[in-house]
Amino acid sequence: MNAVKRYFSSIFNAIVALLKGMRLTGSYLLHPSKILTQQYPENRETLYIPERFKGRVYMPHDENNEHNCTACTLCQLACPNGSIQIISKNIELPDGTKKKVLDRWVYNLGSCTLCQLCVDACPSDAIVMDNAFEFSVYNKSKLIFDLNRPGSKLKEKKTEPQV
Ligand code: SF4
Ligand code: SF4
Predict the structure, then answer these.
(1) Spatial separation of the C-alpha atoms in residues 112 and 94, rounded to whole Å
(2) Which CATH number belongs to the domain containing residue 116 in this structure?
(3) Do 21 and 66 fall within a single domain?
(4) Burial 59-81 (b: 16+ CB within 10 A, else e)
(5) Does residue 115's CB lie within 6 angstroms of at least one atom of ligand 1?
(6) Are residues 32 and 60 in the same domain?
(7) Would the CB of 113 count as within 6 Å of ligand 1?
(8) What is the mean pLDDT of residues 119-137?
(9) What is the sign of the dihedral through the CA atoms of 21, 25, 28 and 29?
(10) pTM above 0.85?
(11) How many whole angstroms separate alpha carbon 6 and alpha carbon 11?
(12) What is the total count of domains within the chain?
């Protein structure tokens, strides 16, 4: 008897839940100004992406095309799936000594899981998570980027980079 009661009670609960959902849908039909969904991509100009949304790893540069990356490779070591390759080179300083600097910060967005472990591992705040998101491509090889800009270099004194 209990099983029969449970059976009909679950049907009743399902109908109540359905009616609640239909009531909400009906209210949006009668008051379209309340609609929260967005017509993308038509609204691209006014689209709001929350600041904390993670779309990619990004390297900020300042107005002098300088960044904070020292090519220490800690981010590469922290990445669980090999999405980062730090390529460094040695340059000669005016006093004749050699210094290791960043040559290329190669980022594979196609394999990145946006876990942020690289950002957390960076001791220089050289990289951040960015909320850009439009990266659809037909070929995954197009999702491999150099994050350091052409001609950029390490800041002499670390300051807050401008995005
Ligand atoms: S966000 Fe995670 S997966 Fe992506 S590059 Fe950084 S550590 Fe690797
Ligand atoms: S981004 Fe940060 S952790 Fe990665 S190589 Fe540059 S300074 Fe090191």
Answers:
(1) 39
(2) 3.30.70.3270
(3) no
(4) bbbeeeebbbbbbbebbbebbee
(5) yes
(6) no
(7) yes
(8) 96
(9) negative
(10) no
(11) 9
(12) 2
